[in-house]
Specification:
753 residues; 4 domains; 5-stranded mixed sheet; Immunoglobulin-like; alpha+beta; Beta-Lactamase
């Protein structure tokens, strides 16, 4: 020290700019700087960050930090933000501990003093804190996070939380609400009251947030513009000792708006399709307007180009005609019919690129007013002018094929269809920077084309490309609409048929039991009649002959009646069994059946059924049955049910017209005909009733649809008939009608005998 050496160190030696406080403790020197604690390497004479203090958070002025060491070699440190102790371990290492000092983490520490007994004193601006490490325990008491309040649309509270999750009041809360209330505010807290301002929180809204939010001291969370769906808001807290609480959860649902439902999306799709179509039409009108302006310019030119002006006008008309078509062949025909008036187009064609097959397809190419067969040019055929034009997206102009071909291809190729021309023009068809094909005009004369003709073909190509895109868009939209309509109809039909099956099964089961009783008692009555005859024979000598005659006459009538009951009861039982088979998706056994005989029987049943309901019923019946039909392989119960349904409906409609008609001379008429054809038989059932209104014709075969008054019809007859004929027998059922005049049902069955 008598001869000291003084060296100066600064930023060149790695020391941060600003104040420095040095502490010499435990044989080491610690340098507190603006950027933290640094250490010094005497050999290299360099300063570097001391990793010993990596776990400490720095305050605004860490160079004014405080540090001391106690008798056990523990370092007590404050760097302007938090206090900590580096505990010396038996192996000589140190462990950073901050939790035990966290309770006064908010205090500004100005001094630290240690006593030999281990007590540590902390001096603050207003207090002196005595800390005894051996008496301190880190608080690890479990505590809950609490969602205090949930509010929507500003301050409209929909949920009040109170207490802990176990004791919280179940006050009214609306867990499902409209999409209009998709702005929510959550207030939450924690039941940890030791330095509560130091509590930290994290949240997650399941269904919206992918993960927990970072820990923060915010006790409120906002969400806006939440989409419809189901959500769970979760909240957790962490106290000053870094102990994490149990979580609190609030579940809720935001219902979708009308414009978010599936049918609304269908409307959006239709609207978008209409918008696209409208934009295409608008673009077409813009091009037409551009052509009109071009016409005005041509009118101002000299007489020398008058002919060209007239041709441009004609081209505009051609363009309008082309863009009005939605069929590719119509587009080609329209273009060809008009282009010959402007230029020599002995050969005219449009090639369309097929991306799936990688070919250029030429449908309906014209040559000398004849339509050539459709042909395709592979894109791999580099010696085709059409391929060169498409791939390079450039025009092809040839006025002498034998001379000019080498500009585009390596060798001359024979025409795929027709003859080889001398003059050739090819122009790429482009729409929105996309090449969709080529258009060509060709002549058998040399030097047939100039730049003027090339410009005509270019303009024609523009109109043609627009027309082709219009046609493509129209087909796409039309197909999507058809698919959507078909899917919707299938869904409706399937759901109704499912309900129909359940209803049919229920009705059939309910009818079967009483029907069995009818059949059984009819058979017993028949046996009883036989027993009575035997008793009469035994006692004939004891009875008057007149009485015997009356009794036998009554027994004959009874036997006939029970026979009829038994016969028709068995038929009804067969129909019930068929209904049960139909409700299970199965059909009865196929048999060779006399269709004409079945028709006559069903006509008789329908007539007497109507008479049983209304004894005033009467109708004229005409039949014209083809004897050549013979027998068909069908399910007789099912086909009979169809005939009976339609014949009964025809009788009902014709008789109803008589009742309601003001024409006293009207006579109800039922006409049934059958015809034998090579591949099918037709059965026509016609009535002269009021016909079917146009508004309900599309619904006629829909399950549960009926035009009869309530209680007089279930709406199942025609639906079941359609299912039996179309699905059960691979046939067809349709109708012809004229409102106020007639209705005729035509049933077609495959002629398989």
């Amino acid at each position: 020290l008598l001869d000291p050496t003084i060296e100066k160190f600064g930023a060149d030696h790695g020391l941060p700019v600003g104040g420095v406080t040095a502490y010499r403790m435990g044989g080491r020197i610690f340098f507190f700087t603006k950027k933290g604690v640094y250490q010094f390497d005497p050999l290299q004479k360099k300063f570097s960050p001391d990793p010993f203090f990596d776990g400490m958070e720095l305050g605004p002025n860490p160079d004014e930090g405080i540090m001391t060491v106690d008798t056990e070699g523990n370092y007590w440190v404050n760097m302007g933000k938090e206090s900590a102790v580096y505990k010396k371990l038996p192996n000589g290492d140190y462990r950073l501990e901050k939790d035990q000092l966290a309770r006064f983490a908010d205090e500004v520490i100005n001094a630290i003093f240690t006593e030999p007994d281990g007590v540590v004193w902390f001096g603050t601006a207003n207090n002196v804190i005595r800390f005894a490490p051996d008496q301190h325990q880190t608080e690890q008491v479990d505590f809950p996070a609490i969602i205090r309040r949930v509010a929507v649309a500003g301050d409209s509270v929909i949920y009040y939380g109170a207490g802990t999750p176990d004791s919280r009041s179940k006050e009214p809360s609306q867990n499902s609400f409209s999409y209009r209330y998709n702005e929510l505010r959550f207030d939450f807290s924690a039941a940890s009251y030791l330095n509560p301002r130091a509590n930290e929180f994290r949240t997650q809204l399941e269904g919206f947030d992918d993960d927990w939010s970072p820990w923060s001291k915010d006790t409120r969370r906002y969400y806006t513009n939440l989409p419809p769906g189901k959500y769970r808001f979760r909240a957790q807290a962490r106290n000053i000792f870094q102990h994490v609480s149990s979580e609190d959860v609030y579940s809720f649902t935001i219902t979708p708006p009308l414009y978010g439902t599936w049918w609304a999306w269908c409307l959006y799709f239709l609207g978008a399709a209409g918008l696209i179509f409208g934009l295409v039409r608008l673009r077409t009108r813009q091009l037409q307007e551009r052509s009109r302006l071009l016409e005005q310019t041509v009118q101002e030119r000299t007489a020398e180009i008058q002919e060209q002006k007239n041709n441009v006008e004609r081209l505009s008309v051609i363009g309008r005609n082309i863009t009005d078509n939605l069929s590719i062949k119509d587009i080609i025909n329209t273009a060809y019919e008009n282009v010959n008036a402007l230029m020599d187009a002995t050969v005219f064609g449009i090639g369309l690129f097929d991306p799936e097959k990688e070919v250029m397809v030429f449908p309906g190419t014209k040559e000398k007013n004849q339509t050539l067969p459709e042909f395709a040019v592979p894109l791999t055929d580099e010696n085709r002018l059409a391929v060169w034009c498409f791939v390079n997206r450039k025009d092809v102009v040839i006025n002498d094929y034998g001379r000019d071909f080498s500009k585009y291809i390596k060798q001359i190729q024979p025409a795929l269809e027709g003859e080889n021309p001398e003059s050739i023009l090819y122009v790429p068809l482009q729409h929105k920077e996309k090449t969709i094909g080529v258009i060509t005009a060709q002549s058998f004369q040399k030097n047939a084309y100039t730049d003027y003709h090339l410009n005509i073909l270019r303009n024609l190509a523009t109109y043609t490309a627009i027309a082709l895109e219009n046609a493509h868009a129209y087909r796409r939209v039309h197909q999507l609409l058809q698919d959507l309509k078909g899917t919707q109809e299938k869904l409706v039909t399937q759901s109704k048929l499912a309900a129909l099956g359940a209803l049919t099964a229920g009705i059939a089961h309910e009818i079967k039991n009483p029907l069995n009783f009818v059949n059984n008692f009819a058979e017993l009555t028949t046996e009883l009649v036989a027993d009575l005859r035997e008793e009469i024979d035994k006692n004939r000598d004891k009875l008057e002959s007149a009485d015997v005659s009356i009794i036998e006459e009554l027994l004959d009538t009874m036997q006939q009646n029970t026979g009829k009951i038994n016969e028709h009861g068995k038929r009804a039982d067969s129909i019930v069994k068929s209904m049960l088979q139909h409700s299970r998706g199965k059909s009865g056994e196929r048999q060779l059946t006399d269709i004409n005989a079945m028709l006559e029987e069903d006509i008789n049943l329908a007539y007497h059924g109507m008479r049983a309901q209304d004894n005033s019923f009467n109708i004229k019946i005409e039949t014209d049955l083809d004897a050549n039909i013979g027998k068909l392989d069908v399910v007789p119960q099912d086909i009979s049910r169809v005939f009976l349904n339609i014949i009964s409906n025809a009788c009902y409609e014709a008789f109803r017209k008589k009742i309601t008609s003001s024409d006293d001379g009207f006579s109800p008429l039922l006409r049934v005909t059958s015809r034998n054809y090579a591949d099918k038989i037709d059965i026509r059932i016609r009535d002269n009733g009021n016909g079917i209104p146009a508004a309900i014709r599309d619904q006629l075969f829909t399950p549960f649809f009926t035009t009869k008054p309530a209680g007089q019809g279930t709406g199942l007859g025609l639906s079941i008939s359609y299912d039996i004929i179309v699905h059960g027998h691979n046939g067809q059922i349709k109708f012809e009608t004229e409102e106020g005049q007639f209705t005729e049902f035509i049933i077609s069955l495959p002629n398989k005998k």
